[in-house]
Specification:
The protein has four helices and no strands. The chain is mainly α.
Amino acid sequence: MTDSARLAPAGRVFAIVAFVEAATWAGLLLGMLLKYGTGTTDLGVWLFGRLHGAAFLLYVVVAVGAGVRLRWPLWALLVALVAAVPPLATLPVEVWFRRRGLLSAR
């Protein structure tokens, strides 16, 4: 049985949304580099700013839902929510939660 097969449905959704949130962060960072670093275009900030805003809000909703559904301890829910703020932090948190079994059915 693979690792992803053992994930609860809420854990699988959390893992996917954590990746999407990090990917949109990366796009926004690239967009900021192009806009402020090279001065070539602001299209990346325009596009990924919107996408990341939506992904951020979705991540917060999914994290709270997964925390309730999977009965995370309060510290785990707080870590998941704080991870949405620094760039790309949702990826290591998702890996850590997966290894600790927080994304699996109890």
